[in-house]
Predict the structure.
Amino acid sequence: MAAVRIRILIASLLAAVLALGFATYFSGFLTRRIERLCSFAESMVGNPEALPIEVVAQDELGMLARALNRTAIELRDLVGRVRLESARREAILSSMADGVLAVDEQMRVTFSNASFLGALGRKGALPENLPLAELVRDPELRELLMRVLRSREPARHRIRLTSAESGTFEVQVAPFAGPSGGGAIAILHDITDLERLERIRRDFVANVSHELRTPLTAIRGYAETLLEGGLEDAENNRKFLEIIKAHAIRLNNIASDLLTLSELESGPSRSDRSQPASEAESVSVSEAMDAALRTVESEARLRGVTLIRDGQAGGRVSGNRVRLEQAFINLLDNGIKFNRPGGEVRVASRRDGDGLVRITVADTGIGIPSEHLPRIFERFYRVDRARSREVGGTGLGLSIVKHVVERMGGSVSVESRLGQGSTFTILLPVSAY
Ligand code: ADP
């Protein structure tokens, strides 16, 4: 009996040791699997490219591993899509012509694109979370952003930035709320050119009205004088009519110069059947200059100004012959008008390097004060209004020259010395044919 009990005891002990061994082995096995699952789950966020976890058994942990593998695939797709989207957005914002600036609630810069930095005259990346005050000195932009941050309402304002590349911007600011706090985003649309064009247009309309009013008032005044008895004034009636005629001619000159300018700005007129739509023909510079010289010859003689032709090597250029001739006439005419008796106007044309023709019209006239030089190609700009009117000028001659030359792919410039004379230089590309 005792031997049987001992055997049972040994068998029980063995069974207990075996059970303990198995239990230890399985619990270690399970712990390792759970640990692997944990570290896999943790690595999924930081490393979406991680390989899927191996499914070692078809039990609950196996099911969990399979579910984690599926989640990892979805997460990888999601991260990929987010990355693509963010790269796309980054590319759009960086290549935008408009400036983009984002700030957080503490007015620190969280994003700015190249256009915005360019407008401030800055290059390269900004330090992270730079306070806006250190980037933008203009209080207007900061105040606008602050207002939007406070009110949480979008706002729009025209702002002038006084940075290196100063300009005027239409700024639109909108608030935004993010998971890690809110902020505001500003889009800056550069309207410097638009504003300049608006100003030019306004000035132009004002100038045209002013230019027309002077001769019209004179015509009306002298016509009334004639009607109110002037007709019987044998001594003066002819003089009054001469004045009316001179002002009518001036009106006509202004109208035709304006028409020329508007045609130059909008391309050849449809009614002008003598010119092909493209306006381009091969024009001999010498021939156009000769024709222009013939046109102004009598005026030069009348004013005692000598016309001198220097170099004749010009070659051919591509453009509208009549317009080029007109540009030469305008320059020659000015050289004669703003000259003195006994003075001269010297013209020359020669081939320059880089396939260009250089045409110069130099006079020994009154010259142009240096402060006026940058503006004389503007419409209606005159150094001395009274003198220009006296010699029948419209103030449009040089702007026609500029337009004609630029339409032909060339440029015009001027050098002048007060009391000694002026030299206008036209550079035109030589035509291929
Ligand atoms: P205008 O009809 O008055 O001549 P332009 O546009 O041809 O108009 O010229 C503008 C102004 O530039 C003139 O009024 C004159 O003050 C100045 N100017 C142009 N050419 C000359 C020149 N050769 N010498 C001196 N002043 C000139």
In short: Residues 2-89 form one domain. Residues 2-46 form the longest helix (45 residues).
